[in-house]
Design brief:
By secondary structure, the chain is an alpha+beta fold. The protein has nine helices and 15 strands. The strands form five sheets. A five-stranded antiparallel beta sheet has the order 5-6-7-8-13. A four-stranded antiparallel beta sheet has the order 9-10-11-12, with no helix packed on it. The chain has a two-stranded antiparallel sheet with strand order 1-2. α3 packs antiparallel against α4 and α3 packs parallel to α6. The longest helix is centred in the N-terminal third of the chain and has 31 residues.
Length: 349
């Protein structure tokens, strides 16, 4: 059978030069839109009022949840753990923050969706496709459609919805303001004090035993922590970052600073281990020069002369801890550091 005969046998098709068959008619004809069915809210004002109250309630519930989020920050401690079924043991603060913030955001979304589905106009408005650069008449039509949509949404007429929505949207950002608390320490005096106080024994960091003067030899370097600070404590890292202590025994005649000598015991001087540049732990000691070196940025301090800075970017000397010996012969602190340890901070005033 020839190609001509094939073409005659397909009366509703056309044969192209490459042998492909093209279907007659428009396979993508516009099926049109189904007839519009009004909602109950469109014909019954009482039903519209009910939907309005539902939307307003959701926005109001969002405001209550936002207040709960802020209250949770104030009420619940950071370290409080409780059992909540079925989640198990969780942080009550994290649970409360997540729950209240989730409810606040969900209610705003649910309120907006319910408003759009029940009260805003749902009439389909088809429009022909046009070029990106719309002609003036199209721009005018868009503005007219926008004004019509705004009027049909009832935004101006339904003041209860409008006002509660504004309230919910205005209060949700307050949750973000509360989150700023986690960016740093609250304006208190926590950075000015450590765990050291009068009568607290100096505990060897390696042996976890209290130190006696005879445990330290001339030229030796020992690290200590306050009595009562255990490594398994939840706040150990926070406390040791301020209270870490280094002890060096120097011959009394080699100590140049008068106050340093008065605050020492038999040549044993106690200084903060935290560098005053950016807070690195100091651990390198030169016996002959009595210098300690910070390994991070090479700040160097002279422990025989009030731990003053002799090299590097550190801004001030290491704080000294006044020490003595208790009735049992163990080294003890005679108070806290007189100045904040570590790097300078603007709150010092």
């Amino acid at each position: 059978m020839s190609s001509q005969e094939n073409s005659e046998s397909l009366p509703e098709a056309q044969a192209t030069a490459h042998g492909a068959v093209e279907t007659a008619g428009d396979p993508f004809a516009d099926p049109g839109l189904p007839a519009h069915k009004p909602r109950i809210q469109d014909i019954d004002e009482r039903a519209a009022k009910r939907s309005e109250r539902v939307v307003a309630f959701l926005f109001f519930l969002s405001m209550v949840a936002t207040i709960g989020f802020i209250a949770s920050y104030v009420i619940f401690p950071v370290d409080k753990i409780v059992f909540i079924f079925p989640f198990g043991h969780v942080s009550i603060l994290n649970f409360a923050l997540g729950l209240t913030l989730g409810v606040a955001l969900f209610c705003i979304g649910a309120g907006a969706v319910h408003w759009a589905r029940t009260l805003m106009s749902d009439v389909e408005m088809p429009a022909e496709r046009h070029e990106i650069a719309a002609p003036p008449e199209v721009k005018a039509q868009v503005l007219a459609d926008f004004r019509q949509g705004a009027a049909e949404s009832g935004f101006g007429r339904r003041k209860l919805i409008r006002n509660t929505m504004f309230g919910a949207l205005a209060m949700v950002p307050l949750s973000g303001v509360m989150l700023l608390r986690d960016l740093g320490t609250l304006p208190e005096d926590k950075l000015r004090h450590t765990m050291w106080s009068k009568g607290k024994a100096l505990i060897n960091m390696n042996t976890n035993e209290p130190l006696r003067p005879e445990d330290l030899l001339v030229g030796s370097l020992t690290f200590a922590k306050p009595e009562g600070l255990e490594e398994d404590a939840e706040d150990f890292q926070t406390q040791i970052a301020k209270a870490a202590l280094m002890l060096v025994r120097i011959k009394p005649e080699d100590i140049k600073d008068k106050r340093e000598l008065e605050w020492s015991h038999q040549g044993i001087v106690a200084y903060s281990k935290i560098c005053t540049h950016v807070g690195c732990p100091i651990s390198l000691y030169e016996q002959q020069t009595h210098h300690v070196l910070c390994p991070c940025h090479q700040s160097t301090f002279d422990l025989s002369d009030g731990a003053r800075v002799i090299f590097g970017p550190a801004g001030h000397a290491l704080p000294q801890l006044r020490i003595g010996v208790n009735d049992e012969g163990y080294l003890e602190a005679l108070g806290d550091f007189e100045e904040p340890v570590g790097p300078a901070f603007w709150e010092r005033g």
